[in-house]
Amino acid sequence: MNGGSSLGAAEIDTEFERGLAQARTLGLAAIFTAGFVAFTSVLSALGIAAFLNDLWPAALIGTYEWHGLDILVLTDLTVLILSWFAVGSWIYRAHANFDLIDGPAKTFTPGWSVGWFAIPFANFVMPFKAMKELWQASHAMPVDSEQTAPGLLWLWWLSWLGGSVAQYGDYYGWLDIVGYAATSVSAACLIVIVHRINRAQPSMSIASTFE
């Protein structure tokens, strides 16, 4: 059993329903912040494109040390950081929900499903595997590392990696536009992923716990 073996059926059912409710609430926060990231990332990409083509409004240019475009980019970064906390909290809760039922053994604990994002180099692979496992478990699919992940998950993760590695440099360039555009795509995909997992999780049966 993945969790709660000392609890009765009614108690596990109550815990599971509470976990689903928490996942829905945290999911709304994740969707809201991801939507904001998608929006501000698009604005940042457009702003940088305008700047590079000398179309940025002269009144907003400011100085080289503090360009008006910096405010837009800083806003995007702030929203992105907030989304990390919101999405991380949802991922933890969604993984924990699966631990309340007697399903197949999982590779990732709720803590490590979030923690891998902070481990250098491993964070290029492990968070994707954890999300894939969460998707499989939530949709009552066999938890199988060899099974191909849905295209939606691949698009989310590859665009996230693209956005993460592209936005580097001393000043604004065309690579930044690619990075912000990729981040926007990733955030949009994440909105769909959160929605579909939250919609699928209530169908995870706990009946097998006592069979």
Our measurement of the CA-to-CA distance between the termini, rounded to an integer number of angstroms, reads 12 Å
Quickly count the helices: 6
Order of helices and strands: HHHHHH
Coarse shape:
elongated
Write up what this structure looks like.
The structure is a single chain. The protein is mainly alpha-helical. The protein is 65% helix and 0% strand. It is built from 6 helices and no strands. The protein has helices at 9-52, 68-98, 110-115, 126-138, 151-166, 174-200. Helix 1 (9-52) packs antiparallel against helix 2 (68-98). The longest helix is centred in the first third of the chain and has 44 residues, at 9-52. Mean pLDDT is 84; it is low at 206-211.
Describe the secondary structure blueprint for this structure:
Blueprint: H1 9-52, H2 68-98, H3 110-115, H4 126-138, H5 151-166, H6 174-200
Helix pairs in contact: 1-2, 1-6, 2-4, 5-6
Please sum up the structure shown.
This protein has helices at about 10-50, 70-100, 110-115, 125-140, 150-165, 175-200.
Descriptive tags:
single chain, 211 residues, mainly alpha, disordered C terminus
